[in-house]
Write a structure and sequence with these properties.
Layout: E1 3-8, E2 12-20, E3 24-33, H1 40-43, H2 48-67, E4 76-79, H3 81-85, H4 89-100, E5 104-107, H5 109-121, E6 131-137, E7 142-148, E8 154-161, H6 165-173, H7 177-187, E9 197-201, H8 203-212, H9 220-223, E10 227-229, H10 230-240, H11 245-251, H12 262-276, E11 280-283, H13 288-295, E12 303-306
Parallel strand pairs: 1-4, 4-5, 6-9, 9-11
Antiparallel strand pairs: 1-2, 2-3, 5-12, 6-7, 7-8, 10-11
Helix pairs in contact: 5-13, 6-12, 8-12, 10-12
């Protein structure tokens, strides 16, 4: 039976419709880049424009959910970092529930790490390593997650850093990126996450994988499992960081609205990659929405609030 989950991120809102029974029988992802977390460090509020784009995304998703014969009450909707920060999340998600019948759960960073890891593990082959580290570069936060799969699945530890593609774009515009990152590294100890190999999830890194493959159109199948080196990221940044958005779109039309934040996402990946001593990055198109769909509901220990 098909189920659905929605991940309300700080840059992108993702819908997953799929069937899972110890393995993925089917899974289809739909994406809207809405920039919901834009400017939240200054205003502590969702801005009107991003809220309207997000509402339109939910309107589209409600039709897809209905078409797939999934009831709104069964859809697992999660909200993450931007929704943890702003003061008007209640108003926004209450309007979503009233219009579409979709209840949203605001989850803690530990829940984000747990369900993201669970989603990634669901895609791995039996020959995958029994312990590894995941990086999830979102719009407003970046999670580092230590995962073990033997003797059973376990998130050993995780950390949520207040840096991401949307926040980073604001910082770059203000000329504060390096200063903000330096403050974060002073406040958060990430040395225990040093590793030569990272599994990367979320839109920034999957888009970067597609850019390095020089794809004209994005598809999960084309980037899933791709291996990148740290040098690949440096090279891509050197080739693209001075380009204007129209030039980026002419080279990589699949970026769409993500073209506004991709350079900051790339810079976050490079900065953390260097700090952690990473040599290779492995792209995974699986993540939070897959983990919550498999679970079917959010465990109470990870719930901050239900809207």
């Amino acid at each position: 039976m098909k189920r659905a989950s929605i991940d309300v991120g700080s840059n992108t809102i993702l819908l997953l419709v799929g069937e899972y029974d110890k393995r993925w029988l089917s899974n289809s992802t739909y994406s809207h880049v809405t920039g919901l977390g834009k400017g939240i460090d200054k205003t502590k509020k969702f801005a009107q424009g991003p809220m309207e784009l997000s509402f339109a995304a939910f309107e589209d998703y409600a039709k897809i959910i209905e078409k797939n014969s999934v009831t709104p009450e069964s859809v697992v909707v999660t909200a993450t970092e931007a929704s943890r920060v702003v003061t008007n999340a209640d108003d926004f998600f209450s309007s979503i529930k009233k219009k579409f019948g979709l209840s949203t759960t605001l989850i803690a960073s530990t829940g984000e790490a747990y369900y993201t890891a669970r989603g990634v593990v669901s895609s791995l082959s039996q020959s995958a390593p029994s312990a590894f580290t995941i990086i999830d570069i979102g719009g407003a936060s970046t999670e580092l997650i230590h995962v073990e799969t033997e003797p059973s699945f376990k998130v050993r530890d995780s950390i949520s850093l207040p840096m991401g593609a949307v926040r980073g774009t604001d910082w770059m515009r203000e000329g504060q990126f390096e200063a903000k990152v330096a403050q974060i590294f002073q406040s958060y100890n990430v040395s225990q996450y040093r590793t030569k190999h990272l599994i990367c999830v979320a839109g920034s890194m999957t888009a970067i994988g597609a850019m390095l493959k020089k794809l004209s159109a994005y598809s999960d199948e084309s980037v899933q499992g791709s291996l990148l080196t740290f040098s690949d990221l440096i090279s891509l940044y050197e080739q693209t960081h001075k380009l204007k958005i129209p030039q980026l779109l002419s080279l990589f039309p699949f970026l769409g609205k993500r073209s506004e934040t991709i350079m900051a996402g790339l810079k976050v990946g490079m900065t953390l990659g260097q700090y952690l001593g990473v040599e290779t990055f492995e792209i995974s198109t699986f993540g939070l929405r897959h983990g919550t769909l498999i679970a079917g509901s959010i465990e109470e220990e990870y719930v901050i609030r239900r809207f």
